[in-house]
Amino acid sequence: MNFESYPPPFRQPPQNSYSENYTTSHTSTALQDSDFIPTIDLQCLNQLDNKLEDACPIHLPFILFLGYPALSPSGTALLKRSQDINWVEGLNVPLGQLSQIQPQDFTLASFRVLLEEYRKHLARVARALFDSMLKNLNLDTIESKSNLSESNGSLRVYRYPYYSNADSAWGMDVHTDSSVLSILNQDEVGGLEVLKDDQWFTVKPIPNTLIVNLGDMMQAISDDEYKSVKHRVKVNKYKERLSICYFVFPEEGSVIRSLKYKPFTYSDFQAQVQQDIKTLGHKVGLDRFKLITND
Ligand SMILES: O=C(O)CCC(=O)C(=O)O
Ligand SMILES: [Fe+2]
User: Fold this and answer.
1) Is 241 annotated as catalytic?
2) Model's pTM, two decimal places?
3) One of 124, 232, 241, 257 is an active-site residue; which one?
């Protein structure tokens, strides 16, 4: 395992040689708010985060992130508290902006072709799944169909470094996705867990198999018939994990109308989520849009 390729905050001293020096010399930064992840160097992480932002060429819509996967639309981390650090780094690609890339060099050109290809296939899967769910719900209307814009969306590539102290960190904290659908391609390492009937289940990796998570938008569109699944990612002690997730959202301006929720657009939802994360430190989600009923 070449852990030199990890960003410094994720580089771990070899097991058992974790030195006093390392801990004490970093206490003021690494442990400033809590001892949730004892070995991570928060200051170093923030500096790297800033460097990543600076290094990402202006003409590329890609966003690199480190430790904090909740991002604003412009790509800055919404939270920067040490207790919110997730053991993950990643690349976020807004697929609707791929055409803006005029790559001068061969590597970027082929990367763009790959992304376009990936998007094309997963867009087809997303549309087929969404339309059949609408049919099941008797919501087969043009307006409902616009609640999915499969050609936009975003693609995220994640790397979850291995971590000897895996029990003290989350690869990704428990959350629901804000998307309509999220289609995940995970490697064989595993670590994804979903909550069902108050119990956590491991999603066993099966080669050549995609995992489809329903997001908050799908729950609202279906009037709670389909639930947005709570999930989280565990860190592996010995192996890094890679996953790629394609998120699809409603069309810009498309209104989600249902019986249990106020009419809202995805932009309304996203703005509320951003505000809640900033002010409360966590996402409230669909409860913000639920209609109050008297029964
Ligand atoms: O990497 C995974 O398995 C899950 C990622 C995830 O939950 C997310 O991106 O929202
Ligand atoms: Fe997720």
Assistant:
1) yes
2) 0.85
3) 241
Compute, in angstroms, the gap from residue 295 CA to the centroid of ligand 2.
Answer: 32
From first to last of its 295 residues, the chain has per-residue pLDDT tens of 566 777 777 776 544 333 333 333 333 333 334 444 445 566 776 676 677 666 665 566 788 888 889 888 777 888 877 778 899 999 999 998 888 777 677 777 888 889 999 999 999 999 999 999 999 999 989 999 999 999 889 999 999 999 988 888 999 999 999 999 999 999 999 999 999 999 999 999 999 999 999 999 999 999 999 999 999 999 999 999 999 999 999 999 999 999 999 999 999 999 999 999 999 999 999 999 999 876 6
CA-wise closest residue to 284 among 293, 272, 267: 272
Cβ(87) to ligand 1 under 6 A?
no
Dist. CA 234–CA 204, nearest whole Å: 12
Query: Which helix or strand (DSSP H or E) is residue 251 part of?
Result: none
Q: How many CB atoms lie within 10 A of CB 139?
A: 18
Write out the H or E segment, with its range, that includes residue 201. strand 199-202
Distances 267 to 36, 184, 191 between C-alpha atoms, Å: 33, 23, 31
Pocket test for ligand 1, best of 65, 160, 192, 230 (most atoms within 8 A of CB): 192
The Cα angle at residue 238 between residues 233 and 244, in degrees rounded to 5? 40
Ligand 2 centroid, distance to 54 Cα (angstroms): 27
Q: Buried b / exposed e across 163-199, counting CB within 10 Å, b at 16+? A: bbebeebbbbbebbbbbbbbbbbbeebbbbbeeeeee
- Select from 48, 184, 34 the least CA-distant residue to 118: 184
Say if residues 114 and 106 touch (Cβ distance below 8 Å): no
Q: How far is the CA of 177 from the centre of ligand 1 (A)?
A: 9
Nearest Cα residue to 173 out of 49, 79, 290, 267: 79
